[in-house]
Amino acid sequence: MDIKFSAEDVAFRNEVREFFATEYNGDASTRLGANAAADYKSDIVAWQKKLHAKGWIAPGWPKEYGGTDWTSTQKFIYETERGLAGIPDVVPFGLKMVAPVIYTFGTEEQKARFLPRILSSDDWWCQGYSEPGAGSDLAALSTSADYAGDNYIVNGRKIWTTFAQYADWIFCLVRTSKGIRRQEGISFLLIEMNTPGITVKPIVTIDGKHSLNEVLFEDVAVPTENLIGEQDKGWTYAKALLAHERTGMAEVADSKRMLDGLKKRATAEINGGKPMIEDPVFQMRMSDIEMELMALEYTELRVFASMASGGMPGPESSLLKIKGTEISQAIHELQLQLAANYGGALSTDLSSDELGHDFAAEARGKYMYGRAATIYGGSNEVQRNVIAKAVLGL
Ligand SMILES: Cc1cc2nc3c(=O)[nH]c(=O)nc-3n(C[C@H](O)[C@H](O)[C@H](O)COP(=O)(O)OP(=O)(O)OC[C@H]3O[C@@H](n4cnc5c(N)ncnc54)[C@H](O)[C@@H]3O)c2cc1C
Predict the structure, then answer these.
(1) Fewer CB within 10 Å of terminal CB in the chain, N or C?
(2) Which of 204, 366, 374, 379 for a ligand 1 pocket mutation test, highest count of atoms within 8 Å of Cβ?
(3) Where is 379: in which H helix or E strand?
(4) Residue at 112 is within a domain
(5) What is the model's pTM?
């Protein structure tokens, strides 16, 4: 495994650090999901526009469509520095999910119409995959799109749609016919959110915030030109998208930063006359997490080294997702423990952050919302099934 950085890579790392330090003003500091402050959208769009102006908005895209043309090492450096600096990732639905589907399977007209506005963050996208009866078993989806000349008429209900309240567009999996296999007969449609017949209903999560929604479709007319690829072949495109979604879920650099913050707070926080960091039980738990994180980092580096020499991430991405999310949840749990009684207190005004220690509200919110990490992006149980089949051959 060769993970040494060249002089060029070190120079690149310095440039990234410098850019983050001087250009990021912290406005968009609320992380995806654990947010939904009123100004979240404008803050994150402003930050993404700065990245776009720098040419760094889409490291994963091919150069011809606006990508950075970075090496795998540069992409790794960029992600690590972003996590360590506590800078939010770009909102993935446009840049990391639908865009790769459009530039891989879309027509030239679709590429010209959608990609520039995704790059410039002028269009906000959301993902309409899950339905009340179709989550892990996505092929069970039943939202229908009936072909009617120039339009498809869409009826049905999507759920857990993150940031639908901000979205200009939604990419949807819809059923266009009943195939022999359930995966057949599914199509991939791009739908403008202001089309008549669409209703967005908020779902408030356990942390008292609003990032999730239900999206209802009632006789929504969608031009057939908004179909990606071939009718009934959407499953193929959907699978390609999920591979993109799972990449980078280990979030090692983010967890390192959180653990570092935890240590500092545990040093300052006095409990029973001693700093919490000297509490043997707390210490043991923290060391356990630190060791797990170190092991995860080396696993990620192994995957990265194989990708740098031309390999593709395989079932390792399931392993990274499971361990990465478990570790971040364990850190959230310790943060909550550190906040002690204030960690459990809920204000009657759920949006209030002014209770207890300055970090208690944050710890509480992250702990609660963080439960979702082992569910979204393919639940951890389902990832274990992938490992059982692909690695253990069960
Ligand atoms: C915060 C959050 C944001 C989300 N954002 C979006 C979004 O923007 N767009 C979107 O389309 N979806 C979104 N989702 C939905 C997400 O993709 C689904 O929640 C996920 O796929 C699980 O589906 P489900 O909720 O229907 O649970 P189910 O699939 O019903 O699973 C319930 C439980 O059963 C387990 N289980 C299910 N099948 C198996 C199996 N074969 N083997 C073992 N265990 C199994 C699961 O692990 C889970 O514990 C989001 C979810 C969350 C929590």
Answers:
(1) C
(2) 379
(3) none
(4) no
(5) 0.92
Are 379 and 310 part of one and the same domain?
yes
Q: Which residues pair with 191 in a beta bridge?
A: 170
More confident residue, 360 or 210: 210
User: How do residues 128-143 score in pLDDT, each as one tens digit?
Assistant: 999 999 999 999 999 9
Joined tokens for residue 122: 């002028």
| Ligand 1 atom with least separation from CA of 380 | 47
Instruction: Judge if 167 and 264 occupy the same domain.
Output: no
pLDDT at position 384 is 95
Is 285 found in the same domain as 366? Answer: yes
Q: Are 285 and 357 part of one and the same domain?
A: yes
Tell me: do 251 and 228 sit in the same domain.
no
Expressed as residue numbers, the domain containing 84 is 7-90
CATH of the domain at 225: 2.40.110.10
CB atoms within 10 A of CB 152: 23
| Beta carbon of 135 within 6 Å of any ligand 1 atom | yes
For residue 108, the CA-to-ligand 1 centroid distance in Å is 34
Quickly list DSSP for 75-112: HHHHHHHHHHHTPPPPPHIIIIIIHHHHHHHS-HHHHH
The secondary element (H helix, E strand) that includes residue 30 is none
Residue whose entry in the numeric block shows the structure tokens 């410039």: 120
Residues 6+ apart with CB under 8 A from 278: none
Ligand 1 atom closest to Cα of 136?
29
Nearest CA to ligand 1 atom 14: 160
Judgement on whether residues 298 and 164 belong to the same structural domain of the protein: no
